Prior knowledge:
Shape of chain A: flat
Helix content of chain A: 25-40%
Low-confidence stretches of chain A: none
Radius of gyration of chain B: 20 Å
Largest interface: A-B, 15 and 24 residues
Mean pLDDT of chain B: 85
Distance between the termini of chain B: 14 Å
Shape of chain B: globular
Number of strands of chain B: 15
Number of helices of chain B: 12
Number of helices of chain A: 3
Largest sheet of chain A: none
Oligomer: heterodimer
Structural class of chain B: alpha+beta
Strand content of chain B: 25-35%
Amino acid sequence: xxxxxxxxxxxxxxxxxxxxxxxxxxxxxxxxxxxxxxxxxxxxxxxxxxxxxxxxxxxxxxxxxxxxxxxxxxxxxxxx
Amino acid sequence: xxxxxxxxxxxxxxxxxxxxxxxxxxxxxxxxxxxxxxxxxxxxxxxxxxxxxxxxxxxxxxxxxxxxxxxxxxxxxxxxxxxxxxxxxxxxxxxxxxxxxxxxxxxxxxxxxxxxxxxxxxxxxxxxxxxxxxxxxxxxxxxxxxxxxxxxxxxxxxxxxxxxxxxxxxxxxxxxxxxxxxxxxxxxxxxxxxxxxxxxxxxxxxxxxxxxxxxxxxxxxxxxxxxxxxxxxxxxxxxxxxxxxxxxxxxxxxxxxxxxxxxxxxxxxxxxxxxxxxxxxxxxxxxxxxxxxxxxxxxxxxxxxxxxxxxxxxxxxxxxxxxxxxxxxxxxxxxxxxxxxx
Lengths: 80, 342
């Protein structure tokens, strides 16, 4: 019987654990950002931030914006 | 620039702006004259109250538009090609827009509603293209001797029942005005026109194809039934337009109720077949279109769908919602690339 599952990578990943102590006032924006990022996406967010990415891509779209976008799509159904 | 909604129904041609003003006139055009004595001194309101048609001059041609039966032989166009324009449709557009806006020159973005079965036909793309070819540009003429021009800069073609959905959910600035839960919920629209019956279901901004259907089971069936009954009982059969007008003016007479009940049964059956198993899951069933103005049809639908919502004016609700959506086109033009025509 063959080996099951994903093949292990040739190099072991370098695991970095950083503990952030955030001030609720001074770092309120980061607290808000981290609390809104979907579960499981925090590490990807930190990596993207370190590479200078636009972090808004990690945030769930606010409800109002989602409705606006859906209304636009609804109006384009019969567009050629 | 103003935002307008155009609902070119088979029964009535409706037009509205986002502020809630509406105008509707029968979708009939003829060639004829109104005796000058009848017209003298008539303002717009008195003209409408007197049920006088509008005199529309397009270049060298003159038409009567609206309530023409007493003055000219109406040229009925129930074919789908009419959505591509032509002098009759142009006369209706100018007359309706004049009733809405009055004398002057105007620039507009327009949403136009077409029946669902027209938009699902194999040649739908060509129909949509021909509507845009007709509407984008300048519409100039004289209405009741007054100069009038409407320059349409942007056009969006939508399914007619979406107008009722937008009238229910959007405010005058084209933004969603109800709780977000209403947007996410499943909502159906039943649009009973003269010649068409459209059913449309939306959930979280997506059209649910399975519950979206269009057919030709409109008020026309009641008009045909009335014509048959009149032929049998009185030895004379009215035209479909005359029968429709009779139903609107004499809805309480036994012969009218009989004809309307026949149409109501067919309409409810069609709706049950289309919406049957989703009916209990619907947040609201919006009833719209001229057919809903008839009590026997409205009451039967309300009995069948207890979550039915009837707008203040079901005849013009589609046009009003389309106008609210057209506000978004104006915003798009401001935000988008200069000169782009949607």
